[in-house]
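fyi for ur records
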Amino acid sequence: MRKLTGFFFLFFSVITLAQESLFTLLDNSKTGIDFSNDLVDTKQHSIFLYANYYGGAGVGIGDFDNDGLDDIFFAANLIDDKIYRNLGNFEFEDKTEKSGIINNGSWSTGVTVADVNNDGLLDIYVSCELYDDAPILRKNKLYINKGNFKFEESAEKWGVDVERRTRHSVFFDYNNDGLLDLYLLNHPPNTGNFSPFFGTDMTLPEYNLQLFENKGDHFIDVTVAAGLDRAGFPNAAVIGDFNKDGWADIYVANDFDAPDFLYFNNQDGSFSYKTESSLRHTSFYSMGVDAADINNDSHLDLMVLDMTAEDNFRLKSNMSGMNPDSFWNVVKGGGHYQYMFNTMQLNNGNNTFSDVAQLTGTAATDWSWSSLVADFDNDGNKDIYITNGLLRDIRNTDADKKISDIVSKKINEYIINNPDDTDISLWDVVDLQELLDIMPSQKLKNYYYKNDGNLEFSNITENSGLNQPSFSHGASYVDLDNDGDLDLVVNNVNEQAYIYRNNSEKSENNFIRLKLKDNKPTFGTKVSLHKDDHFQYFETTNVRGIYSNSEDIVHFGLGKYNSVDSIVVEWPDQKTQTIYSPKINKLHQIKKKAKIKTQNEFKKPTIFTEDKLTLQHSHKENYFDDYEKQVLLPHKLSQLGPALSKGDVNGDGLEDLFVGGASGQNASIYIQLEDQTFIESQNEIFQRHRSLEDVDAVFFDSDNDGDQDLYVVTGGNEFAPKSSAYLDRLYINDGNGNFKFERSFLPEIYESGSTVKPFDFDNDGDLDLFIGSRMIPWNYPEPASSYILINENGKFSELMNQTDLKDLGLVTDAEWLDYDGDGDNDIVVVGEWMPITILKNEGGNFIKTELDTNLGCSSTGWWYSVEVSDLNNDDLPDIVVGNLGLNYKYKANVEEPFEVFYDDFDDNGSKDIVLAYYNYGIQFPLRGFSCSSQQVPELKGKFEKYDIFASLDVQEVYGEENLENALRLSVNTFESAALINKTDFFDFKPLPVQAQISSINDIIIKDYDGDKINDLLIVGNMYHAEIETTRNDAGNGLLLKGLGDGNFKDVSISESGFFTPGDSKKAISLKLGDQDLTIVANNNDRLQIFK
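which gave:
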């Protein structure tokens, strides 16, 4: 019995240990930290006067007494700042009273810890803001550490007692002189709705951010000389060497319509603004930011937060949606493309970034503040912690309207009753508390994402121990108990600060930590860890998240690895030292002994080299507002060109090139010359058709006379349905490259087209055509009919009685293949809202069927490309299909498909689009109340309030019967894939995650590395999404190396040299002399050529 009892005790002990969460929130009575950043609204200062009144404050971390334990400084808004000494074992002592910390009633927001004077003691800089009428309270404070928790406020002495509403600051050595310089995130007046400063010009020079150079015993303002004299609404900044040139660069997260600032260091004391050239878009209300190597590729990535909610109700009740005019005004005004989502900007290693937040599932975390990227579970991958919450939902649309109505009513009533009384304030008329009570207040849980590797993250907040609802703001990570894992310190509004103990030491994961020591600052030190094929990279920096700094320690989790081969330390002066076989599970004190300056890495020749001289051509898209025709379109349909095709048009044995034009632009034919240059052919016939939209084209011998004729598919959405502007064109070649348009050689087909594919399917010796139709203009997503055209002595007619081609769908691409091995060629067709479809050739009659795959469900997707080839050398045709990708707001699976309903829901004679998505298992309308009621005006009268609309599922909004009678289309997958022919089915193999970061619009299948295995070259992106959806712009083009079994491995940009970040629509291979060119056609951009 005694043994049995012992067994159960051991069993339950193991279970308890296994179930213990990663973090434990410690009781404040144990820690001795009683700090609570308490806020209260008053008539003198409130959310109605200051928009950031509920923005909270930061956390400063540093070993202020050099006893080996990191201490804590809390910034506070209305109450006193506090500093606590770490006594060990998670016990702290309040040292504020005799420390010299001054609490004079100023509003402290940010705190920054660094050794300003290089004396070996950490100093503190506190940023102060608000109080428009009291500049003296806005003066920042610099506390010089005198030792033993004694500080001397010296901001004026050092020349940094700035009163420009500084939200935060960051120390870094911008000129590599061994002294820490200071960058200030200054704000214009932080105006609430009733602030006297409301309407102020926020771009005045006096509101610029500032850079101060450290001269040893004082700072001087070098903002203008450094090229940083730019105003914004900065919430946070992070410093890092983003282009790895050995010099510190700057990223600033800006609120509102100011773009985020990305500055590259010019190495001469100045910076260059690179936001537009390096970032394809940014967050709109950018909040906190951190820089870290998220995917272990040795490049610093960025995690920037916004304030979009994850759940449907808060999303639609607190955000009224983006106004298209406002969005485009921001773009035209230099604000760049901004979207209300978090961004995870992956560093491409070539001074550009790609946002993958939608792919990783980290795009929406509600009203977020601090983002901290670190390896919290010591498994070797950096995780993400995000603080969340706002004291009151100041963007609740219904509350905002109600407050406005009450204020207007009470002011008007007072004026009527007291016409001569003008010397009053708003709060003499309006009850402040009444207005405050209107705004909802809801504590939110902070977020914790576990990095599973390969750009996969899991939201494990509920099981992490970090799931307490709160109003959390500044946060820091730090190993408070020196046990080798990262604890958390969180500054809350109206609640005591959180101290989270990390329990990773109880796991089997190992770690190694480095404390860097030099007589100069070590910020900007780059450290790389090597173990077999495992690699990690860490760069030290001053501040992270928002308003705060974290520990200044290099931390590597090792997972189950029990040894390390080497660690390479590159110091800020670019000298390196290597530590071989360091002991694990300990903190190493690393003194600088480096003597060897980092050598520039030898760059191997890339597979591709871009050639910007051989041919210069730009596609120029015309402007057309598709949304005037259909408000709720998911994306524009008028920007799908240009067409691109190759062929020897003049019989000289050299391949020539056709590039289509947008409506209003001539198409062009470029003739290849013997000297391997191109000259544009003067074909006046294209001038006659310049109003048409060219979306696809093919050179083929239509009349069997031995030369290459040209078929051009006309598409777009600019013209009314059944317009002659959608008729395709056939140009007959005279053999010398001169073309004549023959209208009568084609039947009259008025659908907006997408693709043309020639093949002699009836074996009569001439080429027939499959014509894919993209849409019925102005009637998305109504399926369009596609056609097979029979070649009859060079003239084409429709193959009749093909009922399965009628209303085939929104076709985007097609290929001929004998998919079933019966000796005749069938057609594989793909499109939006379509499954991968086979038009099976049954004796010249084409029967529609869905390709049989092992997906376990219909293969419906938003397919944009298809190519056919043998991928595994088994002499069977395999298929590659390009989909929307997984890095988009829309998500789909068989249990929770993405859907569209299409019908006239309000009986006004016009059909309406209703996109529907699943959120926590319930299907809701995708779009919000504002734009939905613009499409269906009766919704305004039916629901009246945003909160009501936000709470209703799609059936409650539009009616179950109405939806049942509507056209209903679904998507089960947005994943691009290779389909391997198994004779009786096709094995669906998703392409690598790097191929899922955007839509794939075209694919070239070819052996690029000479191993006799076909590789894939893909291009894509979709820049024309509606403005509430982040455009699909993360794609860079990608070479995928074939492994011979239908699987592929991505090849990095640095290795391939292939980089196509534009809205790439077509790609072809073309022979230039003895060279193989790859030509990429970009919408509204230049043609790219790679050798």
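Residues 610 and 1090 are 4 Å apart (CA to CA). thats all i got for now
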